[in-house]
Design goal:
This protein is mostly helical. The chain has one domain (about 20-145). It has seven helices and no strands. Helix 4 runs antiparallel to helix 5 (about 90-120). The protein is globular, with a radius of gyration of 18 Å.
Length: about 160
């Protein structure tokens, strides 16, 4: 059977969520925006870039010195995965294809998060494990901590960092 997600179905889903879930999601979104804004400001980038959808990915990659053209690796796989889940009639096949499309994205994001830690002078394996497991909270800590200093991008102008 083939289902197409309609606006009514989405509205019914959201209206069916308990209030505490919606409040928790709002808090997480707020913390993410504040953390990203503070991270950009600490790296001498415009903080309001955290609010602009495509530009925030380019700014995030700029922190480590990666070219903005690599932003498609961050933005495209989640869209492909979502489309697979929504429009492939066989649920198992959709999940498998979505998972496979997210593997390069996950690898790349882990690599970028570790590079962000290196930009703040973190060289310990424990820091790398923490940033991978608690990425949003770890970035929030890096951004708002007075002790943490941005040392600059790990890739300099003219470097060609590998995608994988």
């Amino acid at each position: 059977m083939f289902y197409i997600l309609s606006a009514e179905m989405i509205k019914a889903f959201i209206m069916g969520l308990p209030t505490w879930v919606i409040v928790l999601l709002c808090i997480v979104i707020f913390m993410g925006v504040v953390g990203q804004w503070a991270l950009y400001a600490k790296c001498d980038l415009p903080g309001y870039g955290a609010l602009v959808p495509v530009w925030n990915v380019q700014l995030f990659l700029k922190i480590v010195g990666r070219p903005k053209e690599q932003g498609w690796i961050v933005m495209l796989p989640p869209v492909v995965a979502l489309l697979c889940l929504l429009f492939i009639p066989n649920i198992l096949a959709g999940c498998i294809i979505a998972g496979i499309s997210l593997l390069p994205w996950a690898w790349y994001m882990i690599k970028v998060f570790i590079e962000i830690a290196k930009c703040f002078g973190k060289k310990e394996t424990s820091s790398f494990i923490l940033i991978v497991l608690l990425n949003g909270m770890y970035l929030f800590n890096l951004a708002l901590s007075q002790e943490e200093k941005y040392l600059g991008p790990i890739y300099k102008e003219g470097d060609k960092p590998s995608i994988f």
